[in-house]
Structures are given as C-alpha cells and as structure tokens.
Structure prediction request, 235 residues.
Amino acid sequence: MVPVKVLSYNIRSMRDDTAALARVISACAPDLVLIQEAPLFFRWRKKLARLASASGLVILTGGGTAAGPAILCNLRVTVERTEDVLLPLTPGLHRRGFATAVVRIGGARLGVLSCHLSLQKDERHEQAGALLDRLAGMGVDHAIAGGDLNDRPSGPAFGRLAANLQDCWATSPTGGEHTWTHSQPPQRIDAVFATKGIEVLGCGVPTDLPGITGTDLRAATDHLPVLATLNVPAS
Prediction:
C-alpha cells in the first residue's frame, strides 16, 4: 500500500488572502491538491503557478482550460497523462469541466479528477454521472475524485457519487465535517471520493493540524478544505 494525501479546496479565484491560502495548503502537506475556482482570466496561469510555488507544489493540469478545476502536486508524483474536459454548456449557466490525470506515486497508479458541479439540480446530477463515466474510462484500477459538489450528502448528485464510490468523510471521519459555513445550518458540499480498493485512513476539514489556524482558514477563501489520507494499493 502506498500512502497518499489528497486535499480538495475551492480557492475562489484567489480573490482573498493568498498568503493564508498557501499556508493552509502547505500545512496539510498534500501529494495532490484538487482545486476548484482556479483563476480563469488575465494571467491565470501565472497566478496559479505562484500559489503552487508558495505551497511547495507544481501545477499538474487544469485551470482555465478546465473552466476552473485544477490539480496541483508535489514531486512524489510522476505524471503519466493529463486531460482537461469541458462539459456541455447549458445556456445561461456557467461552463463546467473536469481536470483529470493519471499519475504514479511510489508503486501506485492512480486516476485523479477535480470537479466543480453545477448550481442547477438536474445539470448537477448529469455531471455526477459524467464524472463516474470519466473515472471508469481512465483505464486505472484505483481513482480519486474531489471537489465542490454544490450538493449535500442527502442530494441526488452527491448520492449518485456516494453510491458508486467511497465518500471518504463518511468512511473515516477525521477533523471537521462542514465545508460551507455561510448558511444555517452549515453544510458539507465539498468532498473527496475514492474507488473501492483504496483504504481511507481519515478525511475531513483539517482544523487541528500544526500550522493551521482558524484565522487563516477564514481568510484564505469562503470554503473550508477537505483533507483525505489514503492507502492506495501498489500496481
């Protein structure tokens, strides 16, 4: 088994305190970061590269070419291939996409997908199905997906994913549950999922790691991050 740490994080186009954002990411010491709402417009690649560098990471794929989702990684990760996928556009709604990659970490081969699903219920459910199809077509035995689902665990899109994949927080809750605190009650709308053969050691909002403060979590962006610690079978 190969230990892998995966962080999913909606960074709100880096419109907030980017130094706090980099501190949070660095303190989590992730191998992979599944980003949502990466910068999309003027010099977006440079902005994302600065965040990656400040966090001790590199850009793997995504950003503007995936309509917002991106993947960062550390130097443990060897990239086999990447693909940014644009999903069908519904008139009047935002364009959505997936950032995807097949990577090797140690002896493990892993499919990776970052997503940000629609605000519209029916489209969101269709996109959840497209996500499952994309994972199934990656040609890997083991895969992870994570992102901002814009849906709660009781919702149809979240439920569609959880019926086919391990909802890592539900499998092994560690740390905080709620990722969106701007509603009453707070909600869990961000998640990391893993295929069945992956062992989930823990998953949740990293509220008690050394180097992470409530001040930085509040200043970095409007979502809270989700950190999953996994054991991936070696290929």
Observations:
- The longest strand covers residues 77-86.
